[in-house]
Amino acid sequence: MNHFPFIKIENRDYPSVIMGEDKFTGWFEKDSFGTEEQRGMAYKEAIETAYVCGVRGFSMSPQPTLVAVLKKFKKTHPEIVCISNHHWQTHYYIGNKSLWSKENLDRIFATEKYHSDPDLIKGSYWFKDVDNNKRFSKEEIETIRLDEKEYIAQLKEFGSFCDFCLVGNYGKSTLLTIGREDIIKKEIKLARKAGLVPLGMCEGGGLALPKMEQLDVGGHWAWINRQHAHPNLSYTLDVIKKIKKPITAYKVFTSSEGFNFEESIKLIRNIPQIKSIVVGIEDKEQARETFSNLKKQF
């Protein structure tokens, strides 16, 4: 086999290794691409290199340049599997205001902190400087809504080249932890109607996975590495043992102790519920080095 193996989720091929796109979007940190044309070329070179190294899975968020490149690549390589992460800056609102504004992101993190067990999150750096007093009130939480028109438009755009999609990707899985799983249920229903298999985004790790497991998703994505998972690593590892649906791990190689390929992979190898990983890549050289090393593990 000249590519990383597939697993099956709801009788569809699903990749065991997925290349992420965050590093190319420029949303979370300063990038060095200069122009959109340069961004598109850098991404194209990276996915081509990843493909040669055996990668058949690619995730995609709503960055127009990257979407165009991956859609074109899918046409010439129909065997690849694309996963839609179509949430950024769209379809979540509180009243008439986007939940993606900086003010509302600060408030949603405060809300999650307030609703979390303080003993469980006391060691989490995610909430170190979060002020509980900024939280949304119970009445405000009830006004959080999904704009179905925007959501359906995103599904239509991404459904043209994606087989799977993430649902509930906001905050640290906050919609689940503050009691608004009804919104995720609505996303799931719309995604299935559009022909996509929904996967639950569980950035909230051990606090989110049991709740997402009860919803009509085909599997989960969970933030986990050898230093961190939410609310803490040991708690999340205990929770994962009880999860039946396949888990895709992301942020696997992130570590406060620096990059350590062998130790990071060892953690994942010891968790049978984790069937797939997402690997963030910065350029074609990193794609070649990382996926070539990863190939030796399969």
Please give a structural write-up:
The chain has a single domain (6-95, 144-295), classed as Alpha-Beta Barrel (TIM Barrel), CATH 3.20.20. Strands 3-4-5-9-10-11-12-13 form an 8-stranded parallel beta barrel. The chain has a 3-stranded antiparallel sheet with strand order 7-6-8. Strands 1-2 form a two-stranded antiparallel ribbon. It contains 13 helices and 13 strands. With 298 residues, it is α/β, with parallel strands linked by helices. The protein is globular and about 55 Å long. The longest helix has 17 residues, at 36-52. Helix 3 (64-76) links the parallel strand 4 and strand 5.
Query: N-to-C terminal Cα separation, in Å?
Result: 10 Å
Structural class: alpha/beta
Q: Percent range for helical residues?
A: 40-55%
Which strand order do you get reading across the main beta sheet? Answer: 3-4-5-9-10-11-12-13
CATH homologous superfamily (4th level) name = NADP-dependent oxidoreductase domain
Quickly list its features.
about 300 residues; TIM Barrel; single chain; alpha/beta; 13 strands; globular; about 20% strand; 13 helices; 3-stranded antiparallel sheet
Structure summary:
The chain is α/β, with parallel strands linked by helices. It has a single domain (6-95, 144-295), classed as NADP-dependent oxidoreductase domain (TIM Barrel, Alpha-Beta Barrel), CATH 3.20.20.
